[in-house]
Amino acid sequence: MMPKYSTDFQEIGHCGGKFTIYAKTAENGRRQYQIGYSHCRPTAASLFAIYALPEGIPVGTIQSGYIGTPCNPPPCKGCLTIYIASDSLGMFGHQCQKCKKYWRSASTPTKWKMTCPYCGFQAESHEFLAVGQLKFVESCCMLIEQAMLSEQDGEYVIDMDKVADAVGKGGEKPEFYYAEESQQNKFCCSACNESNDILGRYGYCCCCGTHNGLDELEKDIKSIRERITTTVRYEDYVKDAISAFDSYARQIGKQLAGRIPMTSRRRKDWEKRLFHKLGSCVKDLQDNFDIDLFKGFNQSDKDFAILMFHRRHIYEHNGGEVDDKYIQASGDTSVRPKQVIRESKETALKISELVMKMGKNLHDGFHEIFVPEEESLQIKKRNPSRQQ
Fold first, then answer.
1. What are phi and psi of 161, to 5 degrees?
2. What is the pLDDT of residues 290-347, one digit of tens each?
3. CB contact at 8 A, 278 and 306
4. Which residues make Cβ contacts (< 8 Å) with residue 201, sequence separation at least 6?
5. Helix, strand and coil percent figures for the chain, each rounded to 5
6. How does DSSP classify residue 289?
7. Is the pLDDT at 7 greater than 90, yes or no?
């Protein structure tokens, strides 16, 4: 379950614990060490492990094996094992090396690639470490080097409990201090159950790569349909349903432009594409990306959806009054210039239903191009209540 808190950009303290190196000199005179991480604070805590070069550079994500199954070997000789701990709510901070944006998640994939919620860039988990985590990795590597160079046997410790205790307090911070930060949209992915905390409203699940836009559209349409059944501002609800679809579709258009190679002219078109002119957008999505917004529609539903999208412009910009441009563009001969268009409960409910169908078609077509991580989805199928 997603941790409960309501404040945007709130500092979230580290879970605490102690990173310990046990160093000793063997009988043959060689220095040996073991690494451990202990935690005893009354907070949530999770761990994942990475391989790092002695200089403090992360180079691999350790894939935790099942009982009797070894972990994956390091990518090169001399790698050190470093444990990365969560914040006090059991979530990890991440930062994309491509778009530089930050987010949090409740777990970190170790056996498949992670997806940046903002730009869709995919890489192994160790390539998305946040600034504070990178500083911690470097500090751990320095401590291991210190322990190995020392002639003294014993424990060498980085005390993250001091870091956790310093959250929200003034004065000098501990040497290894870092904290995470809550973002704005804390959502649970409907495809894989992963908890994400991202800036803004729309984004991918970082665990499976499924875009959350359809879920956000569904929330909007559910709210609109509830209002349709209780009040009679049907023209407003038609406008709101179409605007909700437009907002979602614009996000998908930007992702298509950002992730698919295309000419600069076409890229600029899709980056700025508005979806109010439904007929042309349906054609362009089909021609350019083989995405069929009208999949499963009969001709009557297609015509009705296009008409309602034309009417949205009248409600948005003309106060509901018909003009010649509307009649010419829509072919609606049932009205005359200056006439105020009225909607009914039935038309408002129908367009909200069709908007959801188009949203589902857009979602499915988009993810035929950018396929979610199947292993993450299979985990949910095997145990729907389990997070990766």
1. -65, -35
2. 999 999 999 999 999 999 999 999 999 999 999 999 999 999 999 999 999 999 999 9
3. yes
4. 184, 185, 216
5. 40, 20, 45
6. H
7. no
